[in-house]
Amino acid sequence: MRAFPSISFPSILFPSNPSAFASLLSAALLLGLLGSSLRAARAGAGSVTLTPLAAWELGLLLAGALAGAAMSAHAARRHAAENRRLQAEIARRTRIEGERAAQQREMEEGAQSLTQTNALLAEASGRFQELFQGLPVACVCCDIEGRIMEWNRAWMRLHGLANPLGGTVGEMLGGPAGVPALAEAMQAALGGEAREGVEWTYQRTDGTRVHIYSSLLPLRGADGAVTGVLGADMDLSAQQEAEDALRGSEERLHALYNTTSQQGLSFEEKTEALLEMGCAQFGLEVGVLARIHEEQYQVIQAQSPRDVVARGALFPDGEAYCAEALAQADVPGPEAYIGAPIRVDGAVWGMLCFAGARAQMGMFTSGDRELVRLMAQWIGGEIARRQAEEAVQASEARFRTAIASMSEGLILMDAGGVIRICNESAERTLGVTRSQIEAWRPLNPEYVARREDGTPFPQGSYPLVVSLRHGQPQRNVVAGLLWVSINSTPLFRPGEATPYGAVATFADITERRRQEDLIAEQMVQIKEHAATLEVQKRELEVVNTELETLALRDGLTGLRNRRAFGQRMTLEMNRATRYGTPLSLLLLDVDHFKGYNDTFGHVAGDEVLRMLSQVLQVQGRETDFVARYGGEEFVLILPHTGSEGAQTLAERLRLAVSLAAWPARPVTASIGAATLLPDMSAEDDLVSAADRALYAAKTTGRNRVIHALSLGAAPAACAAAA
Q1: What pLDDT, on the 0 to 100 scale, is given for residue 643?
Q2: DSSP output for 20-38
Q3: What's the CA gap between 515 and 521, in Å, rounded?
Q4: What residues make up the domain containing 162?
Q5: Does residue 51 surpass a pLDDT of 90?
Q6: Ramachandran angles phi, psi of 452, nearest 5°
Q7: Which strand (E) or helix (H) includes residue 589?
């Protein structure tokens, strides 16, 4: 039998598609008609005859069945398409849900990674802050507005500020106009330009002035835009002070040289300038140039407020500070006075003195004294030179001619290079006769003029030649193997541009050069003296260190002495009291040492003490402090050691002493031990306890160790010491 597929009853009765229901109904009617016909045929005639009405019905049913089948097929296709669309939609939504789940997982993983990154950033930021705050260089960070946002401790210490947050650097350091150099560098850094080596000085709130060396770097964001400025400051105040001091010394010497060598000033004007310079340099009110005449001091020139010291005033010898300076023959400096003798041709001519109204002890340095001495030396040289010049001028005045009275040499040369006039000063200065001078031809190419170093002037550069050919004056040109300063001037006739001649004056500057060389030599001596003092200072420091070591060492044993023990004992007591750590003390005494000395002599006894000190150093711990207490007694400080540890170490020392190879006879020692107790407030308390224990050890048979706690200390105290 052929099997048919099973159809559920509800799906047949209630199909979801109306067209499918019509098709099923038509098929059922057709099947019923055919079944009726077949039953009739089997029952009767053996053939089936359809009536027209039945045939029409059958055709109608067949047409309906076919139409229903077509409609069912179309609906099935639409249903299948709808199913595919629904399945695609379900697949799309499933995919979207999967993507959302993946995104959710990625977001969770990203959040976890972000949390870890933030933790690492926080840790790195903490380390950076520790590094930033610990930098020895003063650092500060400002935002784009110039407001302070970050700073380290070194910056606060350097500038003496408490909390500069939010303020600008200019406001914190005295206002925007207070430090122009820093303000300009700050603006440049905010504009993106790094600035290094900016030096500036300002006054802190506590009144002190500091010299700062700054570097400013622009800070940029991820887009490259400037977001702020990082500044680094170093305090150069000490270096600046040293440079200022050196510069001040050099400036004083330069000022002295410039004043004394300045042309056009008289001796009185130069001396007055020196007195003003000395008063300003030393901070004193009165400067005096005095001449010694018939046991009196006569004021030649003076610098004083309201002319308290007048020119020509006389002071008896012994009533002025000058007498003391002259007696010492050196530059003194008692109270508010500093001075130096003036010598002319080796003899004392007078004094140069500076004084003040109040006593100021210790205000003068060696540089000050050297400056006064150089001033006095120059004045003496100038006085000697002036005296020589006055003698020359007096001699020339007898000839009653202007040229003969000139102190400088003079030569006049015409346009052809012939020397027409020369005076006696020229002869004296140059050391030649008038005829020899007149025979010179400076314009002749064969004429050779020498510089001060002996090399010839280049052709046409001799002062007279330059003035004659080019009409240019020449000033202070040094020429000749002798030191001669030449000044030459062209001579013009009215309305003419070409000089008709040239006149040259020259002076012997040997004395001035000698003074310059002397000053240079003195400077070399000053530097050598400073270097010698530095070497002596270092040697003295070494000697002081050695003396300090000797003061704390026992000369016989090499151990620390009782003075060193006292210092160390105070330190260890303070440490043990502050931190609550245990501290013990051992006092050791050589048994029958007096008898040993009496029997074998003091030399042998000293050897015993030296050997015993070696035993104690070898057996003692690295942290223990060993010292000779006095005579045959030794002491050991035992930091971080309780009573049991002290007892153990003492027994080890006692045994080591008794087993040592002594040269004459066996030597033993008694040891008293003590441990710091709460009721002990002074070092003597612990020493006294150890001393009592040592006494007990010696009175109970010697060669033994006794701890102070065994002499009847309270149980609570014993527990605390242990």
Answers
A1: 94
A2: HHHHHHHHHHHHHHHHHHH
A3: 10
A4: 135-235
A5: no
A6: -70, -25
A7: strand 583-590
Residues in the chain: 722
Average pLDDT over residues 115-135: 75
Specify whether the CB–CB gap between 544 and 536 falls below 8 A: no
Residue with tokens 């622009």: 218
Same domain? For 46 and 155 the reply is no
pLDDT, mean of residues 362-378: 81
Task: Say what angle helices 18-43 and 52-134 make with each other, to 10 degrees.
Answer: 150
Range from 344-348, 367-371, 716-720 that averages highest in pLDDT: 344-348
SS3 349: strand
The one-letter amino acid at 435? S
Confidence band (pLDDT; 50, 70, 90) for 259?
Answer: confident
Q: Is the pLDDT of residue 544 over 60?
A: yes
Q: Is the Cβ–Cβ distance between 33 and 62 less than 8 Å?
A: no
Per the prediction, the chain carries an average pLDDT of 78
Q: What is the pLDDT of residue 392?
A: 63
d(CA 476, CA 505): 10
* pLDDT, position 709: 93
Catalytic residues: 632
For residue 621 the two structure tokens come to 């711990």
Q: Does residue 308 carry a pLDDT above 50? A: yes
Residue 540 lies in a domain: no
- The first and second tokens of residue 517, run together, are 């060389």
pLDDT value at 400 more than 60: no
| Lookup: tokens for 359 | 């006593």
Indicate the Cα dihedral angle 565, 567, 571, 574, nearest 10°.
100
In this predicted structure, what is the pLDDT of residue 584?
96
At which residue do the structure tokens 């200390």 appear? Answer: 713
**pLDDT computed for residue 329 by the predictor:** 40
Q: Stretch 504-530: mean pLDDT, rounded? A: 78
Alpha-carbon span 236 to 221, nearest angstrom:
32
Q: What percent of the chain has pLDDT over 90?
A: 21
Alpha-carbon torsion (565, 569, 572, 575), positive or negative: negative
Write down which residue in 396, 430, 463 finishes a domain.
Answer: 396
Looking at the structure, tell me whether residues 173 and 296 fall in a common domain: no
The string over 29-58, giving b where at least 16 C-beta atoms fall within 10 Å of a residue's C-beta and e elsewhere, is bbeeeeeeeeeeeeeeeeeeeeeeeeeeeb
Looking at 121, 149, 183, which one is the last position of a domain? 121
562 exposure class (CB count in 10 Å sphere: 0-12, 13-18, 19+): middle
Map residue 208 onto helix, strand or coil.
coil
Task: Give me the CATH number covering residue 260.
Answer: 3.30.450.40
Does 81 lie in the same domain as 38? yes
Choice between 147 and 624, residue whose per-residue pLDDT is larger: 624
**Would you give the end-to-end CA distance of the chain in angstroms?**
113
Supply the DSSP string of 251-311, one letter for each residue.
Answer: HHHHHHHHHHH-TT--HHHHHHHHHHHHHHHHT-SEEEEEEEETTEEEEEEEE-GGGSS-T
CATH of the domain at 437: 3.30.450.20
**Mode of pairing for the β-strands spanning 583-590 and 669-675:** antiparallel
What phi and psi, each to the nearest 5 degrees, are found at residue 287? -130, 130
Number of neighbouring beta carbons within 10 Å of residue 540? 10
Q: What is the helix (H) or strand (E) element at residue 675, kind and residue range?
A: strand 669-675
Element (H, E) at 207: none
- Residue 543 inside a domain? The answer is no
Q: What is the pLDDT of residue 672?
A: 97
Rounded CA separation 54/227 (Å): 103
In this structure, are 342 and 423 located in the same domain? no
